[in-house]
Amino acid sequence: MSTIQYRVSELAKRFSLEFKGDGERIIDGVGTLSGAGPSQLSFLSNSKYSAQLATTRAGVVVLNSDAVASCPTAALVARDPYVAYAHIAALFEHLPAAPHGIHPSAVVATGARVSATASIGPCCVIEDGAVVEDGAVLGPHCIVGSHCTVGAQSRLVARVTLVTRVTLGKRVLVHPGAVIGSDGFGLAFDRDHWVKLPQLGGVRIGDDCEIGANTTIDRGALDDTVLEEDVRLDNQIQIAHNVHVGAHTAMAGCAAVAGSAKIGRYCMIGGNAGVLGHLEVADRVTITAKSLVTHSIREAGEYSSGIPLQENRQWRRNAARFKHLDELARRVSALEKDKTDD
Amino acid sequence: MSTIQYRVSELAKRFSLEFKGDGERIIDGVGTLSGAGPSQLSFLSNSKYSAQLATTRAGVVVLNSDAVASCPTAALVARDPYVAYAHIAALFEHLPAAPHGIHPSAVVATGARVSATASIGPCCVIEDGAVVEDGAVLGPHCIVGSHCTVGAQSRLVARVTLVTRVTLGKRVLVHPGAVIGSDGFGLAFDRDHWVKLPQLGGVRIGDDCEIGANTTIDRGALDDTVLEEDVRLDNQIQIAHNVHVGAHTAMAGCAAVAGSAKIGRYCMIGGNAGVLGHLEVADRVTITAKSLVTHSIREAGEYSSGIPLQENRQWRRNAARFKHLDELARRVSALEKDKTDD
Amino acid sequence: MSTIQYRVSELAKRFSLEFKGDGERIIDGVGTLSGAGPSQLSFLSNSKYSAQLATTRAGVVVLNSDAVASCPTAALVARDPYVAYAHIAALFEHLPAAPHGIHPSAVVATGARVSATASIGPCCVIEDGAVVEDGAVLGPHCIVGSHCTVGAQSRLVARVTLVTRVTLGKRVLVHPGAVIGSDGFGLAFDRDHWVKLPQLGGVRIGDDCEIGANTTIDRGALDDTVLEEDVRLDNQIQIAHNVHVGAHTAMAGCAAVAGSAKIGRYCMIGGNAGVLGHLEVADRVTITAKSLVTHSIREAGEYSSGIPLQENRQWRRNAARFKHLDELARRVSALEKDKTDD
Hints:
- Three copies of one chain form a homotrimer.
- The first copy, chain A, is α/β, with parallel strands linked by helices.
- Chain A folds into three domains: 6-90, 3-Layer(aba) Sandwich (Udp-n-acetylmuramoylalanyl-d-glutamate--2,6- Diaminopimelate Ligase, Chain: A, domain 1), CATH 3.40.1390.10; 101-303, UDP N-Acetylglucosamine Acyltransferase, domain 1 (3 Solenoid), CATH 2.160.10.10; 312-341, no CATH class.
- In chain A, α2 (50-53) links the parallel β5 and β6 (60-63).
- The radius of gyration of chain A is 26 Å and the shape is flat.
- The mean pLDDT of chain A is 96.
- Chains in contact: A-B, A-C, B-C.
- Chains A and B meet through β22, β23, β38, β39 and α4 of A and β4, α3, β40, α4 and α5 of B.
- β39 of chain A pairs antiparallel with β40 of chain B, so a sheet runs across the interface.
């Protein structure tokens, strides 16, 4: 399928890396250390895989200077092999070119403004007051609601919905099924029934953010919900209204942040972790998978909640004891007191 | 953008509130206490924000009688300021008027019945035997499957899918990506493989319910899955087949209810909380975020499970001890017995 | 609505079951023991419902030989009544016949290959290099991306998105909102920002798999994400890149599996359970609801984590003690040491 080809020496030059071995070798793809063939490039960044280096059949391996001596094939030497590999691998990605212009099946309101260099796919719907900037690509079935803006070079892969008052920065990548700008969940209880609070804010997504498949980001009640630049959200994440996420923070699949929480910069939120509403989380905080943040976190560091997995019968006995843990602690205190009284 | 304007005295009259201060002041929007300007209305319902009242620049503030004296601007006095604010704020919401009729790009089966006062947006698909009642609004990309009914004045914001045998009451609001009436997850294990159980029931959603973005509600295996009136579901909630949710119950984002569970009226289910299958939860039960309901709950009250968040190193030590909690309890019992034997 | 009818004796013959009682009785539907009427078939497979047998008004009941004597109506005797019922009930499912051919509103690329016996619904988009095989049915709003294949007799109910390099086997059933083949979440941290790793692999789904509503399955980074045959996924499940799921494994709603984890055959993963990345789970492992798999599991069996639900005040006291559990254990050790020293 591929006709993309680079010499090892060309890759070294392009990414300012040193190379060892056969610089003339032709590379036409990438692969794992164990799976790559002689025309493919691989990488070693995790020492767990060091043993695979000896037997790799890859044409060239990206690795750090410590590993060069053990490399049986050509090598590209990088300070951070994983980052260097990420840049190189991008050369070998086949993204079908998106044709400029609007597919005939798309429905574009007369009050919408779509750049001539944007690409609007089949069955897209662009509503009044929406703006799609230069080079933006909308795959099939995207909906850009009223007063939404898709920034330059952004890409909505397919079936993305921007409801209303959503602004995407430049180079934002949104995966299928994501819903951005839906109503925040705001309710007032009036004696015996709920009254809905209108959600009058919007959503602002910074440059270079990525939003995963089926992720939902609600618009603010009064002010906006905000993701600063380079925020990376995996699939099925829920961001409630008026949340603020600092730049370069990444969240793994199924994480959820409740209303008006403020997450710092450079945080890492683990899979299915949760943050309660109105809390603040400092910069450079890591939350491990499935933990629930129940109070504000003022200091960088790693935080956890939850219980380790055990064989079910053993776990049942321990879990049953948890229900009386306070009593157990009191009994220990009593024993200590007895001891002292002796 | 807005040209909606009310005098303070008009708002007081319309919502039967007392006003203090300048009744002639013109209000054209709403905002937070700290952000609202002189032509905007704000509210004080949470005493945490009392300090902001002194310095607010809002044109008028909705508050209760205790706070009137501290209000530096016009005031609207309400028994429940949050509820009063919800009603007033709705006046300032700009919902683009939905045109009556069927968009030319929509696909409506000849056997479907669509009211002349309904609005069917671009690329909607209405299948045979479906009914869309008076004043219902379907945004772009909605699918109304066979034998589904969308009740009067209901609104499917965009890209909502009703699969089959789904009945929505009146004034139901459904957000993008929601799937209602998908197959329940019913399987029988036949020696070495799974056999699917056909899902022959439907879904009934009561009047005034709200269903969040990317929420899924499966149809029943034999009987229907039911949400009574005024049930409020946030985003990414999963309701399995044959679940029954009582009136006025609200669930926060990512909650999940397993098959045939029966949740009472006026319950509050926290974010990412879960309810196991076939359980019953009484009326007026609150489940805190991320808790798992593992047994039926017979009495109103607040219920929780889970572990508090801690710094990771500290947490690891405690979590490791949990694996031997039963043994620890036995050791305490032994010490107590020794004591008694002394 | 139904005109599907079978005599009890016909059902017995068709499914090789013994019958007792009136073989001439006409059956035109199925129902629960408590709800079925005289022309409906019901079943008893769970002894919890035995008491309902005495008063059932069903025309015939599928049950095992032990229960025949207690059955007040005609009976079909099966080794596994639930499996037999699953097969019989399928006769009474009304799936609207899908017309062969491509709906005029669908957009099919010239480079796509669609079988003449396939059915492509309204607003579907089939991209270049995609293949739809014999008898496959795509409901409205499905997207089949470049280099995706929909196997023979597979059914995409509605609004399913296959992004790229996705291969579905035969008879695969995918529910609305599912996204298969979205980018895996691969990022390298380059000093002060994220660099995306291109996701160059695909997804392979085996024969007879079922994928729930709004479930997401990412494509692999280099190799493929794989579901072997007869894997059953409920709604809102997240399968990350390069996960491998063994044949006949079933996962309940909202479960999530992180990158490169390998799940065995015949596993049962409970609702909202999680598996961390790069772990291995043996065959025939059951994980209970909301548990987090934090280490590889080498042996078949049932595994759990988590804490039982309690009334909130009681829970708070116990949870507070958990934060000092390590210290408590040390105090118990000290008491034991004192005892020994005595």
